[in-house]
Design goal:
By secondary structure, the chain is mainly α. It has helices at residues 2-16, 28-37, 44-53, 56-63; strands spanning 41-42, 67-69, 75-77, 82-83. The longest helix is centred in the N-terminal third of the chain and has 15 residues, at 2-16.
């Protein structure tokens, strides 16, 4: 029984450790610039509204089908999706 508790404690502490470096946060205008640099046509006002209320990560599922990785490993949107209503 003592061994089981020790394994639980060991696993608990491993799960609580944070990675040493995190990606820096981005502003909404940075996120819009990223989408534009990858080839997406963006209605800036609409994108700002959506990104303010819904996270970039959550919205990315909608444009994921148009996502491509080029030969250098860079992400782009080859089908040129649009971030507009409709």
């Amino acid at each position: 029984m003592l061994g089981v508790g020790w394994i639980f404690l060991r696993n608990s502490t491993e799960m609580l450790t944070m990675p040493k470096s995190l990606k820096p946060g981005t502003t909404i205008s940075d996120q819009i610039s990223i989408l534009q640099s990858r080839g997406m046509s963006v209605d800036t006002d609409l994108a700002t509204q959506w990104l303010t209320h819904v996270s970039y990560y959550r919205l990315s599922a909608y444009w994921f089908p148009a996502r491509r990785i080029d030969s250098l490993g860079n992400e782009c949107y080859c089908e040129h999706p649009t971030f507009t209503e409709g």
